[in-house]
Every structure is written in C-alpha cells, then in structure tokens.
Give the backbone structure.
Amino acid sequence: MDGYPISRLEHSLQAATRAWRDGADDDWIVAALLHDIGDGLAPQNHDRMAAEIIRPFVREEVTWVIEHHGAFQMIYYAHHLDGWNPNERDQYCDHPYFQSAVNFCERWDQNCFDPDYINQPLAFFADFLERVFSRKAYAPENLYNKGN
Ligand SMILES: [Fe+2]
Ligand SMILES: [Fe+2]
C-alpha cells in the first residue's frame, strides 16, 4: 500500500476507467492503465520505465506525458516529500505537450486514489491492451497520429 489508500492496481484501474469514461482513445486508456507499472521496481523513475514499455506502440504525445508524469504530479505531492519542488513541471512550460501532461495528472492520476470509486475490472481492458500492443512497433502512423 505504501501509504496510499488503495493498491497500485486499483489506482491504475481507476485511472484507466476514468480515461475510458471521459471518451479517451486506446492510447490514453492503455497509458493510464500502465502509467505506474514500474513503481514497485523503480519508484524514482517509474514514469520513464512505463514510457519505454508503451513507446513503440502509442503516439509520441502519450509517451511523453507518461515519461514526465512524475514531475507533473509534484504539484500534488511535493508537500508530502522532503526537498521536492511542487513546480517541477514548470521546466516544461514551453513544451507542446505541457498542457496534455497537466490534464493527464489532473483527470486520470492525482484523483485516482478514491477507495469508493467503482472501476472497471482488469479483464475489461484486455481488448484495449491487445489492440495497442499488437500494433506494428514504431510504425509512423501510430507514433504520429493526431489522436484525441
Ligand atoms: Fe506515477
Ligand atoms: Fe499514478
């Protein structure tokens, strides 16, 4: 549990369910489901670990957001952590995906620790995972599609 009110799996299912209910596309739903997958093994750089897993299959915007979500989460977490900067995300303020990362953390991460939230089960997301990971790796039409 690591001090969180729900498990990592529940947090991830909640994130993916919120993304799905918001009408997000496959890239975002899979990214939301996997965004913390490396947290047990690499807590300090779990964002980059998760990004490398999805990088060949989703558009670059989504990979970038997952890769940097740790910095963007600091606005919500830094006060719990000694010496961390809540405005760490500001170093990316001119990046074209800055707002996308702000939105991801606001809608599908920092609010996904609600023990009363009714999420979809893991099996619900099997088809989403299948579709994304059966894509041709690094295919330009996947990496540079416009998405939603
Ligand atoms: Fe995270
Ligand atoms: Fe998270």
Remarks:
- The helical segments are 8-21, 26-34, 46-54, 60-77, 98-108, 126-133, 140-143.
- DSSP finds seven helices and no strands in the chain.
